Amino acid sequence: MIYLLGGSGYVGQAYQDLLTRKNIPFKNLRRADLDYTQVDKLTAALQADRPEFLINAAGYTGKPNVDACETDKAECLFGNAVLPGRIAAACAAADVPWGHVSSGCIYTGSRPDGTGFTEEDTPNFSFRTDNCSFYSGTKALGEETLVGVDNVYIWRLRIPFDHRDNPRNYITKLLRYQRLLEAENSISQLHEFVEATFACWEKRIPFGTYNVTNPGHITTREVVDLIKESGVCTKDFDFFADEDEFMQIAAKTPRSNCVMTSAKLAAAGIEMTEVHDALRQALSEWVPA
Ligand SMILES: NC(=O)C1=CN([C@@H]2O[C@H](COP(=O)(O)OP(=O)(O)OC[C@H]3O[C@@H](n4cnc5c(N)ncnc54)[C@H](OP(=O)(O)O)[C@@H]3O)[C@@H](O)[C@H]2O)C=CC1
Ligand SMILES: Cc1cn([C@H]2C[C@H](O)[C@@H](COP(=O)(O)OP(=O)(O)O[C@H]3O[C@@H](C)C(=O)[C@@H](O)[C@H]3O)O2)c(=O)[nH]c1=O
To answer: Residue limits of the RmlD-like substrate binding domain (predicted)?
Structure first.
């Protein structure tokens, strides 16, 4: 049996769908039912139920986007930086291996030679580099909390998208924002992300950190072209002149826009669809809200 923390959230729902489809028994824990943020309570539950693996899809993202984290810092710090350490303590006490959903938003840009950041690269969009959003800072701290912890996968998700219209879906965001920021990003098809991360456990690949993004990178303008090409929306999309204008008009805090490589995951035998193809696929199956 699998333990799922935060299973009622946007990412957690995708895990519920996956485990249900695969017919794998799981328990979706919600804080309202069992306060898994308390080490003693989570440890006792793990010792009683003895799940084979735990997935942590809990955390604080801010709604509708990371700007909201700037005004709820205590909750954001707790959910993203403190909670992973608490789960690590409980999983160590009960000897349960686990996986943690982190974020690629701890990087900005690309490597100096233009290639994507690897798992070996130190985050360059964090409190330590003093250039980040509060959300990104807490996600980087969450990873630091887990340094030296055995039996854990750290899975980096980035700007999720899929075929279902949803305010959290990157495609929906681009359809609804009044103006767009031109940027280059590596991004993750949500359902491929959950499949790939669970495959880490199923295939028993080595524990550690994995970038779980669709291979390649894509610019906002390229996504817009694919949206138009698909017929999902053919309007004229309006763009900000530059990041300064974006910050003045639409954002409270800087965004991470970055290129990553998921080559480590592929080398472990877990392949994801090339990013343009994955977007084309999602748009071809588009389900409006
Ligand atoms: N959505 C995105 O764009 C991305 C998300 N991620 C990461 O994925 C994880 C899940 O995100 P997502 O599903 O979008 O988030 P949601 O807000 O949709 O769901 C998160 C769930 O976490 C639980 N939770 C536990 N502690 C807290 C807390 N302090 N504050 C708020 N919620 C808490 C809640 O479940 P309950 O109360 O039921 O237990 C909640 O339903 C996060 O760690 C996030 O950083 C990474 C990259 C991109
Ligand atoms: C607000 C806004 C953003 N954007 C761009 C900036 C960025 O490239 C992209 C996404 O920005 P948002 O503000 O919607 O999303 P943001 O909250 O920054 O999204 C992030 O959420 C957290 C939880 C993560 O971990 C990330 O991986 C990512 O999904 O959209 C616009 O083009 N126009 C806008 O008006």
So the answer is: 2-284
